[in-house]
Amino acid sequence: MVIETTATGVFVLIVLMTLVTLITRFGGVFVMSFVQINPRVESFINAMASSVLIAIIVPIAVSGDAGAMAALVATGFSMLAIRKPLPAISIGLLTAALVRYFG
Question: In which band, very low, low, confident or very high, does the pLDDT at 5 lie, cut at 50, 70 and 90?
């Protein structure tokens, strides 16, 4: 299937991606409504979230620029030090911005 990269084609792609995202989100909630959350299932969900995060981070670590590498290192050390994700992510974003601005 080929979609032209005209304004209409881009709009169609955005609508399709939106629909797929909504279907998977609502489908996941629907499926999980039939699953009893016990400690084993909860640990699986937590591990799944971590594995998705790792799948996003590894390509950046392998082929990223200096800003991406600095952000990755700063976020990792921040997370180990303060153990709070939002401040650690903020530190990583700030580090990437500073490295790219001054570098």
Answer: confident
